[in-house]
Specification:
Layout (H helix, E strand, L loop, with lengths): L2 H13 L9 E7 L6 E2 L4 E4 L8 E10 L2 E5 L2 H7 L4 H12 L8 E6 L32 H11 L4 E6 L38 H20 L6 E3 L17 H19 L4 E7 L4 H8 L2 H4 L4 E5 L6 H7 L5 E5 L9 H16 L2 E8 L1 E3 L14 E4 L4 E4 L1 H10 L7 E7 L4 E5 L5 E7 L5 E7 L2 E7 L3 E8 L1
Parallel strand pairs: 4-19, 5-12, 6-7, 7-8, 8-9, 9-10, 10-11, 11-12, 13-14
Antiparallel strand pairs: 1-2, 1-21, 3-20, 4-16, 14-15, 16-17, 17-18, 18-21, 19-20
């Protein structure tokens, strides 16, 4: 937008607002790699001037409602936490889930093993058990369930959603939890992701899988853990050595519309069903499912990750009654550095601008290099060093805290005009304005933010994340 156009927009936005003297309180929290979660310094507050051009103009136009920020529970995360003494472990849980910490309140958990389980397992590993007589969550009582319950002690109002990385192997065409060969899995022949069905598509099998997922919700509820949302599958387009499962779009529509949707509606009518998690930029594949008459009536929203970030915005516009969310951020390489946090910031920016009201990080806690059971390293919010048995907070923890701590459930994203490539703005239920600005340059940078009849100017440190809270 050119200078004259921005001045014109600013004039219109301000002209409809009464300019009155008011007491303004501004809070600034800043994080750099060396100095994290610090008071940012002085913010200059001045009267809006129609003859000036400011970096960004925050409008009163509300976009999507923010439903929450979260991460994913995993067995290796719980095992890492056990290396800490109780005091340090409790502190980590408060810092992740407490209102004074990152306040991660909308979190994910796997159904059976994901790639950060101790090893492969499902909730029914007895071949041909279509009656699910051997279904059991006993293993989850040693990891996932105590992990979740520890979080619930900190935040009893935490919301939880779940999906499988793979159904039981006997439900699948290649008899394996994975679809790519590796020395540490049992794949005999490979099934490329996204173009094949790796789940048997006959009635008895699909019916058993739908009952399997509903049985999971029932079993967790009996343990005092309420699952509020289900997605049918993690990354149906993945081709890799860890637990994953390929589905054709037409088969997804059939499974959701004729099996999972109807059964979930009867057994758990208060549990939402979302289409996801979608790691594809094939927009026509997603549209095929969303336009299916039988499937669409059961779908409450859409979840995207990885390649899916490129199509969430047009789908958000096409299906306005179906909210969209980020189901998993890109996971890094176990370096835990500031560059990784800046990359996650760009992802947050892309997904929130794409209409997402939920942003989900992946692993919240891992040990040492963040190595999975299948031999690859990922970033995490907090890592536990096994040599010292101490917790280390990574740059991405502070980035997520800049959002989860300040942008609470029920906030709305506000449309921003101008050079907004480095910023996001929200209005909270209490009326306070939250402005996040990143400086990803190697030098300090000044920023001017116009809101209503005031302008806020501040100078950001190099390589910093900054949150400004405006109270009027």
């Amino acid at each position: 937008m050119n200078r004259n156009m921005l001045k014109f927009v600013a004039l219109i936005c301000v002209a409809v607002l009464p300019i009155v003297a008011s007491a303004v309180t501004v809070e600034w929290t800043s994080s750099t790699d060396a100095h994290r979660w610090q008071h940012g310094g002085k913010v200059e507050v001045a009267q809006f001037n129609n003859d000036e051009v400011y970096d960004i103009m925050i409008t009163r136009y509300k976009q999507q409602m923010m439903m929450g920020w979260g991460g994913c529970f995993g067995e290796l995360g719980w095992d890492a936490l056990q290396l800490l003494d109780k005091r340090d472990r409790d502190k980590v849980m408060r810092d992740l889930f407490g209102k004074d910490g990152a306040a991660l309140g909308y979190n994910r958990t796997p159904i059976g093993a994901n790639d950060f389980a101790r090893d492969w397992y499902s909730l029914d590993d007895v071949t041909g058990d279509y009656a699910l007589e051997h279904f059991s969550i006993e293993r989850d009582k040693s990891g996932l369930i105590p992990y979740i319950k520890s979080a619930l002690k900190v935040n009893p109002h935490m919301k939880l959603w779940a999906c499988p990385w793979s159904p039981p192997e006997w439900m699948k065409t290649n008899g394996s939890y994975a679809n790519k060969k590796a020395p540490n899995n049992n794949v005999v022949y490979e099934v490329p992701g996204g173009d094949h069905d790796q789940v048997f598509q006959f009635h008895k099998n699909l019916d058993a899988l739908a009952r399997y997922l509903c049985r999971y919700v029932t079993a967790y509820k009996a343990e005092g853990v309420n699952i509020g949302m289900i997605m049918f599958q993690n990354e149906p387009y993945t081709f890799n050595i860890w637990p994953n499962t390929s589905w054709k779009p037409s088969s997804i529509a059939t499974f959701i519309g004729r099996y999972l949707g109807p059964r979930l509606e009867v057994e758990h009518p208060n549990v939402q069903l979302w289409h996801g998690t979608l790691n594809t930029d094939r927009i026509t594949d997603v549209q095929l499912v969303m336009n299916d008459v039988e499937a669409s009536r059961y779908l409450d929203g859409m979840g995207f990750q990885w390649e899916g970030k490129d199509i969430c915005y047009p789908l958000h516009l096409q299906y306005p009654g179906k909210p969209v969310m980020c189901t998993e951020n890109e996971c890094g390489d176990g370096k835990f550095n500031w560059a990784g946090a800046e990359h996650t910031w760009w992802l947050i920016k892309a997904y929130i601008e794409g209409g997402c009201g939920i942003y989900t990080y992946f692993n919240m806690v891992l040990k040492d290099a963040g190595t999975s059971s299948w031999g690859w390293n990922q970033n995490t919010l907090i890592r536990v060093l096994s040599a010292t048995r101490k917790a280390e907070y990574t740059p991405e923890f502070y980035l997520m805290k800049h959002f989860g701590h300040f942008v609470e459930e029920g906030s709305y994203k506000l449309k921003v005009m101008g050079n907004d490539w480095d910023s996001l703005a929200f209005v909270r239920p209490d009326g306070k304005i939250v402005v996040f600005v990143a400086n990803c340059e190697d030098s300090a940078r000044e920023k001017s933010v116009a809101w209503r009849d005031k302008v806020y100017r501040f100078k950001m440190q190099p390589r910093s994340f900054n949150t400004i809270i405006i109270s009027e």
